What we know:
Elements: E1 3-6, H1 8-16, H2 21-30, E2 35-38, H3 40-50, H4 53-56, H5 61-74, E3 76-77, H6 91-102, E4 107-109, H7 113-116, E5 124-126, H8 128-136
Parallel strand pairs: 1-2, 1-4, 2-3, 4-5
Amino acid sequence: xxxxxxxxxxxxxxxxxxxxxxxxxxxxxxxxxxxxxxxxxxxxxxxxxxxxxxxxxxxxxxxxxxxxxxxxxxxxxxxxxxxxxxxxxxxxxxxxxxxxxxxxxxxxxxxxxxxxxxxxxxxxxxxxxxxxxxxxxxx
Length: 139
């Protein structure tokens, strides 16, 4: 089964809209079509983002908390990455690469332009639409 690290922006987008690639990916994760790799830092970051006033105004805090707990149960949890090698101008992108490496992920999925613009990175970085197309083919 393919292992993927989904950037927090993918999870947030899925919760804010039931339509689109991020929501399809969360549905596919629930169906067991791929394994998501998470760590405590990613879950904490996701919880924090979901409770920011701008997001919380659009999403019930109970739904946000339930989602983070669900993700912690269905995903493969690995320890937080220790040393993070600089591969990008944005340290958050470096963290995703390090998480993917320790979690043996084949792909990183992000809706952010910074990671998508990185070239020569292993594992490969895909947009939510590209990964959703791949996952849809597994059905």
